[in-house]
Amino acid sequence: MQQHVHAELIGGPQDGRSFILPAPGAQPPVGEFTFGTDGAASRVHYERYDRRADGVWRYQFAGEQAA
């Protein structure tokens, strides 16, 4: 049973960033998330988009929010 999956961000200020997400059981990883960086004036929002043939989940940029 796989407990972690690889993810990649598409578009927006974090384009190309990749990381590992928890994915308990056979369920897909979280569908969306919002995060900011230290000193950032806004937070970025990404939504699950699709899964590449090599198993990496891709998240599409969905906008920014004031911090």
TrEMBL record:
Region Disordered, residue ranges: 1-23
Name the UniProt record assigns to this protein: Uncharacterized protein
Organism field: Saccharopolyspora montiporae
